[in-house]
């Protein structure tokens, strides 16, 4: 199996599509936002026709649906098995690290960049009283493990709660040993940092021209909840203060650029650490 991964805006989809054509393979998306229907502009979603390649894992959920790593693993594994039974080489492409690791290992426990764990930690750093809410939720999700903790065990509470949410199982039932499920050729795309940031800024400008603001407003108008999993994604969560009249449109776009750049930097570090066996390919 071939896996193409890397930071946001690194050019993964274009590179993987070219590779897929050479191998006669479809692409299996490993993007936690492109699974949602209607979330198109803010996720830089490409159609099959645009790429000239069939894609799996795109537009399979409604905006209010919850989708865990376990759900993705089941979906993608079924697709991979079906392709392999037909003699087709599977190819995975995306930047959601948990999704990719779920296909390679029995389990993965490190905090993913830009993921729920990081989001909650940031919120707790700003207001420590928020931790109580997540501790109470952890008591419901995994009472056995929560009973071992004190309300001030910040890191353990956040880690355990996010594990339950991400993997759909109790943290107390985990096996922390990583078991390799299958071999894969992993290609991590790299770009010069300044060039990558420039690409991110330009991509957000293009999103603006295409009507990202209208897309978000239409999604909320159609019934997508502001607290849904989908609306936590970069490019969407930044609009909620604007909708509430707390900031202007210019501030929103600048924040999307900033959050995307920070996310890309964390992705690079995470992928480098998780997959030292990968082939690193510098593109320009």
Description:
The protein has 284 residues and is an alpha/beta fold. It has 3 domains: 136 residues, Rossmann fold (3-Layer(aba) Sandwich), CATH 3.40.50.300; 58 residues, Histone, subunit A (Orthogonal Bundle), CATH 1.10.20; 71 residues, Helix Hairpins (Orthogonal Bundle), CATH 1.10.287.890. It contains 12 helices and 6 strands. Strands 3-2-4-1-5-6 form a 6-stranded parallel sheet, sandwiched between helices. Helix 5 runs antiparallel to helix 8. The longest helix has 26 residues.
Q: What characterizes the major β-sheet?
A: 6 strands, parallel
Instruction: Write the element-wise H/E pattern from the N-terminal end onward.
Output: EHEHEHEHHHHHEHHHHE
Please count the beta strands (DSSP E, at least 2 residues each).
6
In CATH, the architecture of the largest domain is 3-Layer(aba) Sandwich
Spatial separation of the terminal alpha carbons? 25 Å
Calculate Rg over CA atoms.
19 Å
Strand residues, percent? 5-15%
